[in-house]
Amino acid sequence: MPSTRRSVWRPPIDRVRRQPRSPTTPHSAHCTSQRSRAHQFRSPATGIRCCTRHLEKPTMDNGSGVALPRYVELETSRRCNRTCGWCPNGEGSLRHDQELMDWDLFAKITGELGAMGYDGWLANHNYNEPLLNPRVFDELDHVGQVLPRAKPAIYTNGDVLREPMLTRLLAAGVQYLRVTRYPHRAETPASYESLRTWARRAGLAQWPWEERVVRQGLALVWQRGEVKVEVIGPNIIAAYNNRGGTVTQLPMLASPRIEACWMTATSASIDFRGRLKMCCCVYPDLDDHAGYVIGDLTEASFTELWTGDQMSGYRAAHARADWSLSPACRSCTQPLPETRRVSADA
User: Fold this and answer.
1) Domains by residue range for the chain, with CATH
2) Which contacts qualify for 19-28: CB closer than 8 Å, 24 or more apart?
3) What is the pLDDT of residues 114-147, one digit of tens each?
4) Which carries the bigger pLDDT value, residue 266 or residue 335?
5) 63 alpha carbon, distance to own chain's centre
6) pLDDT at 2
């Protein structure tokens, strides 16, 4: 007698065998204790309370006492196919052409991080569109070999992403993939309808998406264990900033910063030329930001630059909301992203 049991559709990634990765560090219990209240701060942008002790990580083995970053942006390609008014790419042509990071440099940086046992997030974006990189899967394969404890992440505008590519990216080890569906106009409000429209076009309508309100706006979320995909519709005016003064077309994005910044303590940002920057908002090809390049990784090691005097000076100043060393920070209201915290509910 034929079975009457109904088959349940599952995303293809559910049927792909993936290699397990190391678990993430659990949230520290002392954050809710009375003793730690003096160490806590609350982001006025997000309302999320966090504790400076959350910033503690295993320190680097060069005796500096500086913690490893939680998040490394290793921008391996140059091109972006968009020119958004809320991004410095929208004010010039630097990102119109493709250029890949030299493979030997990529191998050098990832090898050094691997030798240190780096187990944080590793993303291949900054001001580029990473899925336009023709060797993206070769890079993921290399990362899996030399950085087995790292958590690969991809942030994309989703213009070229379709279901087969998404399935392949997750099977290749990507643990977090964010699709940001930017509107044509900054004042356009986010809507679930526009996100669902993109999902249908990408061949992802059948995936069991959950609708959520997120820091940036609205999102469709799919999650299996530690693997997460978010399709975000941002509310640009409410959630974005002026990238340290590099965005001039939308002056309403500029506002004075009054809270401490922990980006320089938790995040490393390297551009496609191998330049370690103060943070991800730095656009070093503009004169006003050229001074925020920490150094060139074709000439120095990651450890030297991350623990050096310039980066350490920024960390100390930013922890007390002192922008005298980095005037560009005075108009930047970038909150500490979820991937830089020990947990999203820190």
Assistant:
1) 74-336 (3.20.20.70)
2) 19/144, 19/173, 21/148, 21/149, 21/151, 21/173, 21/175, 21/226, 22/119, 22/149, 23/226, 24/151, 24/226, 25/342, 26/342, 26/343, 27/342, 27/343, 27/345, 27/346, 28/53, 28/54, 28/342
3) 999 999 999 999 889 999 999 999 999 999 999 9
4) 266
5) 28
6) 41
The helix or strand, by DSSP H or E, that contains position 170, with its residue range, turns out to be helix 163-171
Whole-angstrom Cα distance, residue 141 to residue 74?
A: 15
Helix segments in 189-289, DSSP class H: 192-201, 236-239, 263-266
**Helix orientation angle between 136-146 and 103-115, rounded to the nearest 10 degrees:** 30
Band (86; pLDDT cuts 50, 70, 90): low
What pairs with residue 73 in β-bridges?
123, 269
β-bridge partners, 100: 77
Instruction: Please give the structure tokens belonging to residue 259.
Output: 């809270």
User: Helix-strand-coil percent breakdown of the chain, rounded to 5?
Assistant: 30, 15, 50
Residue pLDDT, tens place only, 87-98: 775 566 677 788
Angle at 274 between CA 128 and CA 247, to 5 degrees: 45
